[in-house]
Amino acid sequence: MKKVWKSFVFGILTVALTVGSATFGQGADTVPQPVDGAAAEAMMSQWNKNWYDSDGRYIMSLEGGYINGCPVLSGTVTYTPTETIGNFKIRESARIRDIQVKHSGMGMHEQLIIDDIWNLSPYSYDAYYESIGDVHLGMTMAAVEAIYGKPDRSRYTPQKETWYYDKVGFQMDFEVGRVVSVTFKSTSDRRLDRTGFDCKTAPEEFARLYPMGAVPVKGGVYYIADGEFLDFTNYPDALTLSIYNVHPREESDTRDGSFRALLGR
User: Fold this and answer.
1) Positive or negative, the Cα torsion across 116, 164, 194, 187?
2) Across all residues in the chain, what is the average pLDDT?
3) Which of 61, 182, 184, 199 has an alpha carbon within 20 to 30 A of 48's alpha carbon?
4) Are 37 and 74 in contact (CB under 8 A)?
5) CA-based nearest residue to 105, from 58, 169, 184, 51
6) What is the pLDDT of residues 100-121, one digit of tens each?
């Protein structure tokens, strides 16, 4: 039954790809790097696992240069400090199709976004460590709305959608339907649920209870769990729980043009 479902879903997915944009996520500061089949196979090996949608359904596998059994022929790769974007050509039984795979996050919050339509996880269940006001990384829009209702306002860009709950002083960023960051302000009554810490908590206390490796300072981003980070860019006015180990608004455009360097990132 699993194989039947995967084939059905992938059939829908590949049809959708024909009407999707092939340039999602490629900004002016990124340069596509051409790859051949061997390079594509090397990249696929990094993501060699089964991938599930937000309902826990098995959707896709990447293995040995194949996506759901379809060989990757060639393509281009674009990368930034927070994501790797591959636009690939794959061979199906009857035709050659284009598919886009955007990889970001790590550990519990590794994700593959397929042509800005599907956000897939290597877990078929919610996996997380910390949360803020019962909102955790990887959570769906529907789950957030079930707790807090519709946001007071929202903002949309091609890369993400932000929901603002102004009355309680916090907000969250979604990428294709899943939470990738949660921010709460010093004026909010939200807290880090596991420790109860807020923006008034001393940096030394964060370092004492989270495995950061250093006392946090304003502007830094610090590891707290597998794939989870606390962003102190706006501390003490605000704190952000994020899947990213850098502050996205401060990404450098420093690049190494080689595909080998990309694989070592």
Assistant:
1) positive
2) 82
3) 182
4) yes
5) 51
6) 999 999 999 999 999 999 999 9
CA dist., res. 175 & res. 243, Å (int): 11
Residue 216, preceding peptide bond in cis (omega within 30° of 0)? no
Is there a contact between 86 and 75 (Cβ–Cβ < 8 Å)? yes
Cβ 83 vs Cβ 159: under 8 Å: no
Q: Residue 117's closest CA among 20, 48, 51?
A: 20
Terminal-residue alpha carbon distance, the chain: 37
Q: What residues pair up with 103 in beta bridges, in sequence order?
A: 84, 112
In this model, does residue 35 exceed pLDDT 80? no
Which residue did the predictor score with more confidence, 10 or 157? 157
Amino acid (one-letter) located at 180: V
For the chain, the three-class secondary structure string (H helix, E strand, C coil) is CHHHHHHHHHHHHHHHHCCCCCCCCCCCCCCCEEECHHHHHHHHHHCCCEEECCCCCEEEEEECCEECCEEEEEEEEEECCCEEEEEEEEECCCCEEEEEEEEECCHHHCEEEECCCEEEECCCCCCCCCEECCEECCCEHHHHHHHHCCCCEEEECCCCEEEEECCCCEEEEEECCEEEEEEEECCCCCCECCCCCCCCCCHHHHHHHCCCCCCCCCCCEEEEECCEEEECCCCCCEEEEECCCCCHHHCCCCCCCCHHHHHCC
* Cβ(37)–Cβ(65) below 8 Å: yes
> In this predicted structure, which of 21-25, 39-43, 55-59, 145-149 has the lowest mean pLDDT?
21-25
Q: What is the pTM of this model?
A: 0.81
